[in-house]
Amino acid sequence: MSSKPVPGRFRQGRAGNHAPAPRRRRRWPWVLLGTFVVLGGIAAVGGVFALQALQVKDDLMAAKSQLTSLTDAYKDGDAAEMQAIGAEALRLTTEAESTVQGPLWGLAAGIPVVGTNITAVRAATEATHIIVRDALPSGIQLLSTMSPDKLKVEGGGINLVPFQEAQQTLPELKSVLAAAQTKVSNIDRGDLLPVVDDAVEQLSSVVDQAGPLLDTVEQLLPIALRMAGSEGPRNYLVIFQNNAEIRATGGNAATSTVIHAENGKIEKVEDETVEDFYLAGVSGWLDSDLPDETLALYEEDFDRNAQNFSRTPDFPTTAHMFSQLWEQTNGTQLDGVISLDPVALSYMLAATGPVELEDGSEINGKNAVKLLLSDAYEKFGTNGKAADAYFADVSSRVFDKIASGSWAPTAMIKMLERSVNEDRIYAYFPREDENALATEFKVDGALTADNTKATQVGIYLNDASYSKLEYYLSTTMNVTCDAASRTMTTTLTMTSTVPGNNLSGYTLAWRNPSMNLPRTTMILDTLYVAPPGSTITAINPADGDIRRWNRDGAEKGHPLASRTMLLKMGETKTVSFTTQLPEGELGPLEVRYSPTVTQTPVTIDASCSALFPESK
Fold first, then answer.
1. pLDDT tens, 328-345?
2. Among 7, 95, 339, 395, which is disulfide-ready with 426 (CB 3.0 to 4.6 Å)?
3. 554 with 291: CB under 8 angstroms?
4. What is the pTM of this model?
């Protein structure tokens, strides 16, 4: 039976005959077309992904812009606007987070090199959404309750309720930040593109800083509430240091006010206890317990009159003397001593706005220093009663203005920070945890026990002419080093701009005539305080201008040298001290000085960088 040939197909025949070879179909156009289709699909998918990536970027940037505007809404006290901002930020981050969870992002994450960056963007977006979704609502609620109008209390003070509510919210906020931090910390940044790595770094920095900040707030807020009288009444002494009669930490501290704080409400204490305290201070009734070696470093009136308690550069010692005088006078204990000078007060008035005085004039941020430290003395001269009445009126009205809370908190905080940076505000509290707060905010004014956290050096000034001439004093500080010999030289330059001898008798120097000196000459006790463990090796001029007044010793472990300098009207003088530094590693260099009515520029030469790598 013969087989029939299959149409279109050739087979091998008998006797070695071969059929023609099978014909190949022409497939290449279809392959090429398929390739184009696949590539086109990939391009389309890539295009969609690129659009999504741009949208995510736009959403996150818009959310950031929204959050930035929260500050303005808070300043305006607009709770509705803050809620609207929060809602819009949440919408934007929700869209961004939904996008990065899509299938395209999952596929892209598996692509070598590119995938690492995609994963980083996803994690950063998720972390941002966690913060906005879980932390922002509570944060906005807190801001709403802490608006300036809600922080005020009738009669003066601060409403503590918002801060007490904040205590309950802090654990939740910390938990949210911890979740966001986990997302960010798991990002492998080794192969990230610079633009992606920069974005991740910004987010990581915010999260890393916010965590410790919340820890600090959680730790310090309960202490601050107690200090405001949340658990019982508190009494604080506020002293005003008059830079026109300069002292180590500011100036003559004869003027003071006692503040009573209870459950946030604050008021001045004006009764016989305050009057008795004042009389004790000016009459020299303090029975001091300071060691003789400390008393020997200063003039004999150091512990005799309250106006001289600030001759020491160690503010805790000053505070101790005032507290001891109060206890010896009234049989009770103060809860703290706070110090500020008229320059700090002028900064605060810049935040509160002007205050009208009894005579119809006003005191404000621009005229306060001149008004209090010069004009008043020229106006009243030696008429002490008139001057006292004027200062009492100013003190009462300015206190009422500040206590009213009728000012922007952010502006006030900025002014207080400026005062702290210029060494114009100090505070001491007898309770250890509360004084730790003063240390945390760098207002403790304490001489350090060692050089671990900071290497302190300073040149301070104490008026010795019994005048108000230092209103016309300006100073600069300069520090140079010799790393090879481990020495440091600190120089103070002083300039007098006293305009003439036609100033009031109260402004001109009272002591000078007995020393045959013009009443326009400043007599300044320049007090050098060296770092603990160091040795003072040279002083220029070696004996100052009055050799018999030289004093040398140590206070709180710091070597100390006092040299008296005479600064004539219109004269500029320098005094310098060289110190052999102790062996071993030193903390950052901290240069301290007595604040004057003007700024004190401080220059630390580059030669000190080898000894103090973190000099400040």
1. 999 999 999 999 999 999
2. 339
3. no
4. 0.81
